[in-house]
Amino acid sequence: QVQLAESGGGLVQAGGSLRLSCAASETTVSISAMGWYRRAPGKQRDFVARIISGGSTVYADSVKGRFTISRDKNTVYLQMNGLTPEDTGVYYCTARWGTDWGQGTQVTVSS
What we know:
Number of helices: 0
Shape: globular
Oligomer: single chain
Strand content: over 45%
Distance between the termini: 39 Å
């Protein structure tokens, strides 16, 4: 099991930026895929972004051009720019195609 710990959430005004971090218990290149999901209030958990072991990335249409997923040895990041109130939610880090999940970090964007 891969242990994951998210950090970096908080309160930001619309148009602002945040960078989320997900610390993994293994080196990220050894993990087949890592990604981010989010759960908006009252909604299901939705895909945000993914990075696979070869470095390829995939994004949800709603965040393309605003969010960037990246990684270093033991951490995956989600740089979020141009935030809107619709980006509010709990952001979860996941590994191995949804096998492992972190506890989540709250992101709140005020208008």
